[in-house]
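Most newcomers find our protein records easier to grasp once they have seen one. Sequence and backbone structure share a record, each on its own labelled line. Nothing more is needed to start thinking about how sequence determines fold. As an example, a complete record with its sequence and its structure tokens follows.
=====
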Amino acid sequence: MIGQIGHVSVGLADSIMIGGLGTVSLAAGAFANSVFVVPMVFGIGMAYGLTTPIANADGEGAPLKARSFLKHGIYLNGFVAVLMFLVLLGFQNLLPLMGQDPAVLEESRSYFTIICLSLIPLLGFLTFKQFAEGLSDTRVAMVISIAANLINIGLNYLLIHGHFGFPQLGLDGAGLATLIARILMVVSMAIYVFRKPAFKIYTAGIQWLVIEKERFKTLFNIGFPSGLQYIFEVSTFAMAAVMAGWINPESLAAHQIAISLASVSYMAASGFGAAANVRVSNQLGAGNIQSLRRAAHSNFVLVLGLMTIFGLVYLFGRHYFPSFYSDDPKVIALSGQLLIVAVAFQIFDGMQVTTLSALRGLSETRIPTLIVFVSYWIIGFAACYTLGFTFNLGPIGIWIGLATGLIVASSLLFWRFEYLVKQLLKKDQNG
């Protein structure tokens, strides 16, 4: 959980420290990240595709199989990272067509290029992280994530405002700090994976030139739908940011503040989701369906409790937390209103990410992808636009639409998981 929060804390720290530059800079960072986050989470989903086969191989007691998946995961995720970076560079020419304030658009350009480049080391780090997590080793990735966040905060301080003789780069300084921190993350995690004695059975003697198409196929069949699942969800939130920008820069800034806070609880819940993925796929590989079900249900109960706590924190701190980001009274007041809506969907957000991860542990990705698409892009997006603009509820309406999509997704995903587990239990009982 702490390791997962480490991913989003980079953006959280950036938003707080960028906020000191003013509302336009905060809105520019929000706009750039709302576009960047869509391909980024697709890459994250692809990287997560490595966890399930590694945990399966561990449950089967097949280290050579896990070694092969590690090698092919490095190749596949490296290719995806470079490809998406090039696509994003081309897409940069389309940013002026997205209806943003000219001042916001101008300030976001170079920052967007820098954070897009940081995608390559981020996916490298996640490849090694997901390999280690597939073997139930999560502690070092957590430490590296925390250390990288501290480095990012320190570099933000030096580069955004130009302290201690460093150049004053403003928004670009925040992007450069993120890039440097992510490079250090991948280097540190790679050294750990290849030097840990307990991992030698998986990393020693890798035949880098021997390619097995079936390994790529397995990783792709899990990773690609997982990436699409993240795209459908996050792109809805990204479009919500774009829609907020149609209203005015203050609405976009308030959306960024509220979403950055809500993303902390989401990533905490995704930590339990990662645990559910590992335990479900490990027990599936060992053929223990009853244990598989208990592991998943334990994670569901834990995440429900966690999200209830987060919801109460946001409720009582809704007028306090936004002041960390901005001193604009209008932005702070609107952020507080959005956080009330966030409280309402905390539980459903936690359940959908945890259940989705448990389904990934069963290598079940196609039906969940369809559920996510319908929930977010058909129901959620339509609700955002209708409530926000047709009924003139503005940012509040957009956020109620997001909550609607989360409620539908969590309900259908939980039903799908329970159905599949019951089928596995029947098959197990019938021999």
In short: Residues 233 and 405 are 9 Å apart (CA to CA). The mean pLDDT is 86. The first helix runs from residue 2 to 18. Residues 2-429 form one domain.
